[in-house]
Write a structure and sequence with these properties.
Blueprint: E1 2-9, H1 11-15, H2 19-28, E2 32-39, H3 43-49, H4 59-66, E3 71-79, H5 81-89, H6 102-106, E4 115-117, H7 121-131
Helix pairs in contact: 3-4
The protein binds adenosine-3',5'-cyclic-monophosphate (CMP).
Amino acid sequence: ATERTLSIIKPDATRRNLTGKINAKFEDAGLRIVAQKRIQLTIAQAQQFYAVHSERPFFGELTEFMASAPVVVQVLEGEGAIAKNREVMGATNPADAAAGTIRAEFAESVGENSVHGSDAPETAREEIAFFFSGLELVG
Ligand code: CMP
């Protein structure tokens, strides 16, 4: 089925001017960018977005990193978009990511790993609604 997923191009990637190269990977895989904006998160917003990880030892590091430079938040649409996006991103830790994936090519570490993608339909809905109104989604 056609799905939508929430993608974030993270600060390590926007700093290195990799937005276009990462978007090309999504588009080459058949994903359509149906909404996109570049924003600067506050630490409070990063904490809210990643609230599910609030008990993890890396929560402080993660939320400070996400607020350290602009991010590009986007909605990707396509057949099986959630799984397809995760395939294109590669494993969370770039050391484990398959050749040709975004994280294998661009990520710097498990924390500074260039991209985020929703992990399931329910989280995709919640994460899209966190950043976008219905009016901003242009299929
Ligand atoms: P993401 O998909 O954005 O969701 C949670 C993030 O936590 C994950 O990608 C990683 O970038 C980050 N993360 C996971 N493990 C660690 C870790 N050990 N140290 C720092 N960040 C981590």
